[in-house]
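How it folds:
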Amino acid sequence: MSMYETGTVSATADATTITGSGTKWADQRNGIGPQCTIAIYGAGTVDLYAIARVDSDTQITVTRPVSRAFSGSAYGVLVAETQSVQYFANMLAAQLGYYQSQMDGWQEIMTGDGSVTITAPDGREVTISSFKKLTDDMVGKAASGVNSDITELKGLTTALSISQGGTGAKTAADARNNLGLGTAAINNTGDTGSNIPKSNQVRAAHAKSQPGLVSNVASDFGSNFNSLSPGDYAIGSAAAVGMSSGPGITGQHWASVSKFGWNHSFLVDWVVDSGLSAVHLGTRFYNGSSGSWSGWTIFYNNRNTTKASDGTLKAASPVVKLFTDGSFDFTDEAEGVTVIRQGIGKYLIEGCQGLNSDAEWGGIDGGFDIPTDRNKQPLLWLDYDVNADGSVLVKTFHRTHPTAPVWARNERDGYTDGDPIDIPSDQYVSVRVGMPLDSIWNQKQQPPEQTS
């Protein structure tokens, strides 16, 4: 005989269910099922019960009430009689019958039109709707709910209405029409090929082109402004809008114009800043009453400012940043410079034309920005020499503050005030340099040569 004796069992007197702990009764591989015998081992006694059904891994129902209570008792389920051919035949017939009932049930689920009840492997009965019944139920619920106009499901070929979150159409044109979209819905925005927007492009509200102004705007841009309406725009030459000549300022230029109620017009365009030796975005106003232009206002941006070592922004370009080991960085306008660390605290900048004399940086002798501590005290003394070839030798020295509190004196072992020292490793020195007329940046700004 073969016995299943895993775990322990408990039951109350007169109950018809036995509870297991650590048992796996529903696992068919163990062979436990109806008509098997369960033996409860007591103190010198054995109680036998026939199994009516297996309810779960930890519960079985027996055919007669339990005669006396037991808890945590050992047990054994007789699952096979080695010499019984009849038992094997009965088990095989039961398994084949179960599998056949499963096949019949699933066939009915796939092809029938109602609900089917099948017995799960653990003995529980489960009712499943057939595929056809599921489809019919879905359509019926849609027809009786908020989507009552959906009466069939055939590959979703029926367009969803607008109230259902769709467009009520199967083509893009019909969808736009149903949604009330005009011709702008299929047009691009902006100007992709000409200064005058194309007819198939979307313009700003109330804006319209003034192609008639193009021919005479160069001679009298201001008076033509007076003929514009709010939202109009026009095109003029660099000279017409009072721009300086210089790199990149040639030919026709776009002028964004708006007309205000007090007879003023607003112009945005690129402008040459002679102090920066570069082209930057600027704005100016035209007073229609006096017939005069205001001066240019230059927009500050990443090309005409630099971040100093203390984190503040300064008007800049061209600027070279020197680091402790002689490595360096530069703004676009300073392209072409090189830096060589010649020794402790000595950095030679080559490829420049001396220092820039911009007053915002203190004039010709003030084109430097040195690192400071958290109290804005300079960390370095700085000196420089401008060589005959325009190169600049920057020299840095240790700087102490003996009158400050001890923790703010910037004292370092091995250095006294005025000793040559490299730039701190976590800081840099900014140098405002002048650039020669044939620098890489200036050459890039020249208009391309015309070929015949």
Summary: Residues 190-201, 203-223, 235-262, 273-277 have pLDDT under 50 and may be disordered.
